[in-house]
Fold these 2 entries.
Entry 1:
Amino acid sequence: MKHDHGDHGDHGGATATVAPARAASPPGAGVRARALEALGAARRRTLALTDCLDDEELMAQHSPLMSPLVWDLTHVGNQEEIWLLRAAGGREPLRADLDPLYDAFRNPRADRPALPLLRPPEARHYIAEVRERVLGILAESPLEGSPLLENAFVFGMTAQHEQQHCETMLATHQLRRGPAVLDAPAPPAAPAGAADLPREVLVPGGPFTMGTSADPWALDNERPGHTVDVPAFHLDTVPVTCGAYQEFIDDGGYDDPRWWTPQGWAYRREAGLSAPLFWELRDGVWLRRRFGRTEPVPPDEPVMHVCWYEADAYARWAGRRLPTEAEWEKAARHDPATGRSLRHPWGDAEPAPELANLGQRHLRPAPAGAYPSGAAPCGARQLLGDVWEWTSSDFAGYPGFAAFPYREYSEVFFPGGEHGGQGGRGGQGGRGGQGGRGGHAEYKVLRGGSFAAHPVACRGTFRNWDFPVRRQIFCGFRTARDAAPSGKGGR
């Protein structure tokens, strides 16, 4: 399933590939139950994000960056039909006529409103019919005998795809103009002493295992596990906050080309950037629009809706830099006491509400310093959840990468891939049409998930990617510096 972006979600025109070697384990009730719960959770969220709007709002395109919500609604069902009904279950197509309409590569987001899309009642009926048949297949499947079925991989992949679209649909809600229709409780406050946390943590140098060869539901770009030697570095304890980012604005950071790459400065001028997306300065007070509400910008929350160029400029202004993808993952996963790479910063236990801000439980990031129980061994907090974090790294395959179960999920977005510089997964997709340097993909890696990401699609190895101009996604960042003295140590 591929993302179209800002989501990890769209895919179409999928071409099956030979599976890489995977550790097989006997199927059991636990695997089947996990798949059933993952599919159910994804569908509940999909319906919650679409049932709150009338049919005309679902058919409308709220931004050329995004699909009409009814397209996403039908697309998740179409991909479920392709992968679970047909590929896993061996059944005849239910609605093969929908395949070309809901193929993300064939239909860029900006073009989708003109397609003869199913209207919401028909879309709901279709996805319910697909799901009813899929549940029968899941109940009967041996969950072994092929790489797609082992450990219910294809069911997990499909659940992740739908949850990725739920994050995309939430981004559409944020872009939508109109009265608020979504609500959620506020995230927990930062604990006492959070304001006194050290600015940065030291991540010792040395080798660690990056990626995974063992996680049964890991996607192809997370594989295989491999050793990477990372020199010692310092990393921000928490993501950069709105208050810290306001200092960059107040210091004229948007008007000083010294802090911007040439491409970033050109884009800043072209797009007229002067603050994060959805921010507005009114009577000397910074306000933001959040899901139909206007509110003061909270200074202690991680800054959000900044593109890679903005994050990179801030880091340069602060005398620091963005971390590499390997640095980010080492900080999030490496346990110096055991030498192991953990599944999550806190260990191998599944995410829980006290560990990370995930799953759209709260429709905003938690204050910086929250979730002390979810801290990584290095001491950094909020590495999973709250905001996706830009890294300095381009998106590329790991050594030994093998596309599975189809090239279009990841491989076509690597440098030199056929979608390099074309507007993102799914052609133009949500990434917009601004391409990369010299025909290369120029997709930057984001890590860590956001408050909008579901735990099934968020782990220490999970990789997101997008164009460096992308801002509508729930993205922020933290900064790093070399451990060895290198001049200015940062503000």
Note: The chain has a mean pLDDT of 91.
Entry 2:
Amino acid sequence: MAKQNIKKVGLNVFVNVQIQNIVKMMTVIALNAVKSNVVARIHPMVLLLPHRFYMRGHW
């Protein structure tokens, strides 16, 4: 009986660890996607900022 329980617990721990790893990976992927999305949105703005200041400074 005890051995059976240990095996079950071992399997549960293994499954939980696997799930946690998958969740971590998903979180990392999601965060990277969000980051690159934000960067993609901000990047053009950042590029345009000096141009605006330059234009404003000239006028």
Note: Residues 1-59 form one domain.
